[in-house]
Specification:
The chain has about 600 residues and is an alpha+beta fold. The protein has 2 domains: about 1-435, Porin (Beta Barrel), CATH 2.40.160.10; about 455-600, no CATH class. Helices cover about 25% and strands about 35% of the residues. It is built from 16 helices and 19 strands. It has helices at about 1-30, 40, 50-55, 130-135, 215-220, 365, 420, 455-465, 480-490, 495-510, 520-530, 535-545, 550-560, 570-580, 585-595, 595-600, and strands at about 75, 80-95, 100-120, 120-130, 140-150, 155-160, 165-175, 180-190, 225-235, 240-245, 265-270, 275-285, 300-310, 315-325, 335-345, 350-360, 380-395, 400-410, 425-435. A 16-stranded antiparallel barrel has the order 2-3-4-7-8-9-10-11-12-13-14-15-16-17-18-19. A two-stranded antiparallel ribbon has the order 5-6. Strand 5 (about 140-150) and strand 6 (about 155-160) form a beta hairpin. The relative contact order is 0.11.
């Protein structure tokens, strides 16, 4: 128990240390100008498949829809871009039936990545670590009907193995030809070959579920493989990859790095016809994957479709997945099917479901006992699992999303397994989830791309060094003195999202109308009582925490001096200009400056 608490504390401190380093570095930079950087790559929402690949924020070389958010901490130092991801669950699991188990444990992973321009291309190094060998005792955690790998020399039944301490240690090089062609290379002593979709620990549709999928060993178990080499070619929205790797699954000793000859291969085709869609088909031949059956080779095929729909205050990510394995020794075939979906709504709330149908073998009947000498693996039917869960974020520590949640799973067993498990065993889990995120990202972005990505993330740092917008007597002197503090407060995680939501609702309302004078009362009503859904609740939080109320005080002071008109649309454009100017985009700022005189209040006579 003491060891688990210490490990959890270490995970809590890592994001804070990374953020402190980021802030100190940014504040000490004399004049950071990110206008020359590839904003699509820096953004958590790439514009194209090529940009998504260059971001390298998934497992291996797999891809998710371009619009899929990826929470991370990020900074730049000495021409290197540094990024940090993590997902930590501390949970208690309870299961019913004779085979059900109860356990308190932690599933977790953290990823560090560094990118640097090297010659004509981009060089990336990445490592992914987990403390599961220590936070999951007895080499497994309870998971009814699960199969795969071994513990203490016997097959694991009704349990999921921990991942190796080093889940990935990889170097990548991407060479871009024009705007539509990308050539990529991936080398990893431990990594993820081009076989299967993005692995379940890193899929947005499974991000809130702390447990593994039942079909893991038919779908994506090769995400931790030894001695991986992958080459990929991308043209516009189509990507073709080929990999060579060592086929044996990791052994029971999870702290070391396994090695072996490259004796297996795989290939994958990925198509992303739009920003919200991604599909892949992959197949491969795996040599001797299981240590208990060293002479058995395996053929694997997978196909998947992913969909992500951005929402006003969140996003909705879904995955449809099929996996199939076939033994090349006795032609035994096992299929698994999965549908999972996670929706984030009202910024801090997550609800998800996972529905699976996984074909199981007669190893479950033997249980965790030595296999008989004449044992032949055969299918005993499909197990169905239905999972539903919910959690809610509580931001206790800055830049660390801390959620409290629970999920419930009901199972349906095939006839041969009912005498052992019962007809409908169940399982329940309560957990705490910890995940670092940058100022404007959780698992989604609620504001349009024109203000997001690198523009939004760098505003906090750029505001220190960017030249001020000189709007004399304007109610938003946003880059000078007190306004700098107002902007910093406005880009806090919740405030900034709310700020942009309101801002663009107002812009859409007023852009269609010719600018007209607005009385102060009507201006306040239009700004904080718009007709969008949940406007009253959002407006209340907005008016309490964002800097605009101070600006309205300025408006009132201006009116007391005799102001005849203040154009709402102009104020909105000034806010846009402030954000774009702080990120290095001066086009809108110049447009506003050309009409500066029209923004000054006219004194009464």
């Amino acid at each position: 128990m003491k060891k688990l608490v210490c490990i959890a504390s270490a995970f809590l401190l890592l994001p804070a240390l990374a953020l402190a380093q980021q802030s100190n570095h940014m504040q000490n930079m004399p004049g950071m100008d990110m206008s020359h950087q590839d904003h699509a790559t820096m953004s958590m929402h790439p514009a194209t498949l090529i940009d998504a690949i260059l971001a390298h924020d998934t497992s291996g070389t797999s891809a998710q829809p371009d619009s899929t958010p990826a929470p991370m901490l990020m900074t730049t130092t000495h021409d290197w871009t540094l990024m940090f991801h993590a997902n930590v669950f501390v949970l208690d699991e309870q299961q019913s039936g004779n085979r059900g188990g109860d356990k308190f444990f932690s599933t977790n992973w953290l990823m560090g990545m560094a990118q640097h321009d090297a010659g004509p291309g981009k060089f990336t190094i990445r490592t992914m670590l987990t403390l599961e060998p220590d936070t999951i005792t007895d080499r497994r955690y309870p998971l009814l009907f699960q199969q795969g790998e071994t513990a203490y020399g016997v097959p694991i039944a009704d349990g999921q193995h921990p991942h190796d301490f080093v889940m990935e240690l990889a170097a990548l090089y991407d060479l871009k030809f024009g705007t539509n062609v990308l050539l990529s290379f991936y080398f990893a002593p431990t990594g993820d070959p081009a076989l299967g979709p993005t692995a379940y620990p890193h899929r947005a549709s499974a991000a809130e579920d702390p447990l593994a999928t039942l079909g893991h060993h038919q779908e994506d178990s090769s995400h931790v493989a030894a001695d991986v080499a992958t080459a990929g070619f991308t043209y516009r929205f189509v990507r073709i990859e080929a990999s060579g790797f060592h086929g044996r699954e990791p052994d029971e000793f999870r702290w070391n790095i396994d090695q072996g000859p490259i004796d297996s291969w795989s290939t994958r085709v990925t198509i992303q016809p739009g920003k919200n869609w991604s599909g892949q088909y992959s197949c491969g031949r795996i040599a001797s994957p299981e240590s208990l059956f060293p002479g058995e080779n395996q053929e694997r095929m997978t196909a998947s479709v992913m969909y992500n729909r951005p929402l006003r205050n969140g996003n909705w990510a879904s995955t449809f997945l099929w996996g199939r394995t076939r033994s090349l020794e006795d032609n035994a075939v096992f299929n698994s099917y999965l549908i999972e979906s996670t929706v984030r709504f009202l910024v801090r709330n997550y609800a998800w479901t996972r529905v699976e149908s996984a074909e199981r073998s007669n190893e479950l009947i033997v249980g965790e006992n030595p296999l008989p000498p004449d044992f032949v693996e055969r299918s005993v039917g499909h197990v169905q699992a239905y999972t539903f869960g919910f959690d809610h974020d509580f931001d206790i520590i800055p830049r660390l999303a801390s959620a409290l949640g629970a999920q419930f799973t009901a199972y349906s067993a095939p006839d041969p397994l009912k005498p052992i498990y019962g007809a409908h065993p169940v399982g329940g889990t309560i957990f705490i989830r910890l995940r670092p995120f940058s100022g404007d990202e959780r698992w989604g972005r609620a504001f349009p791309a024109s203000v997001g990505g690198a523009h939004a993330r760098t505003l906090r740092e750029e505001v220190h060094t960017s030249p001020p917008l000189h709007f004399r007597d304007s109610p938003l002197r946003c880059a000078r003195d007190k306004r700098r503090n107002d902007i910093r407060r406005a880009v806090e995680p919740f405030n900034f999202v709310t700020f942009c939501n309101h801002l663009f609702v107002f812009e859409n309302e007023y852009e269609s109308k010719s600018p007209q004078p607005h009385e102060n009362k009507r201006f306040v009503h239009s700004l904080f009582e718009n007709k969008s859904r949940n406007s009253r609740k959002a407006s209340a939080a907005f008016s309490k925490r964002v800097a605009l109320p101070d600006c309205l005080c300025d408006l009132r002071r201006v009116r007391r001096r005799g102001c005849r008109r203040v154009r709402t649309i102009s104020i909105i454009r000034i806010i846009h200009a402030a954000f774009d100017h702080a990120a290095g985009t001066r086009i809108r700022a110049r447009e506003i400056q050309t009409g500066q005189d029209s923004l000054r209040p006219e004194p009464s006579h």
